[in-house]
Amino acid sequence: MKRHLISAADLSRDDALLILDTADELARISDRSIKKLPTLRGRTVVNLFFEDSTRTRISFEAAAKRLSADVINFSAKGSSVSKGESLKDTALTLEAMGADAVVIRHGASGAPYRLAGWVRGSVVNAGDGTHEHPTQALLDAFTMRRRLGSLEGRRVTVVGDVLHSRVARSNVLLLATLGAEVTLVAPPTLLPVSVDSWPCEVSYDLDAVLPKSDVVMMLRVQRERMNAAFFPTEREYSRRYGLDRDRVAKLHDEAIVMHPGPMNRGMEIAAEVADSARSTIVEQVANGVTTRMAVLYLLLGGADLGGEDK
Asked: What CATH architecture does domain 134-281 belong to?
């Protein structure tokens, strides 16, 4: 693997499979009575979050602590950033503290790439603007693989606000690398201009795609990033692109439903669908810790996985 994980495009097929296989091994260890491993003892992981996050920040913190790393949680709201400190100055402060890895979430696309040029440690992109979120794509792939087996030839449908979704871009890139066939379904107004260059198909008809889908991944409508009217009304959006009980009935028996969270229940996904046996939403959260443990372990070159912390 490379020193940083900034984009899903950074991962070759072998890299991605190595992370997923390592996550499988770590998942088995997590079932033991002693879940903590000594593999990253003495290493420091900094969670540098310039945007609000619950799942991702806690997931990375839990992952680092289970590997016995020291964790520093840095929130922009309570730091010198709120006084106008630049990202570069913040990076130099972290460098002076000896951070071995920096997990960054930032509202500006490309911020992790800039950060990687300023610190000697590994940089992990935990979401940058509307660009990418590679560890979310990895945990999604891990979840799919556990439910469906191999991803080769699997048909994955990603539905909703693709334009503002860093999750969608990372998933398309990673799933294509792993041999899956991805179809994006969204209103034309919620597709990026560059979507023609993505390794996927595009459709505007959700009902036509569902019967052929092995996985349906619903995306949150990101109102906070919208500065214009991208669809007529919420009701109209839900009618055309929401996943309800009637639409789920069109899926084949083994098909699964995913959502990266947080959800707008009743808009992009009905509550009864989110809570159904097909849904992997809770599994995705649990798998996030295991997958991020694998990423940190491989980037920081941890000790043997077989040992237990005494």
From this structure: 3-Layer(aba) Sandwich (3.40)
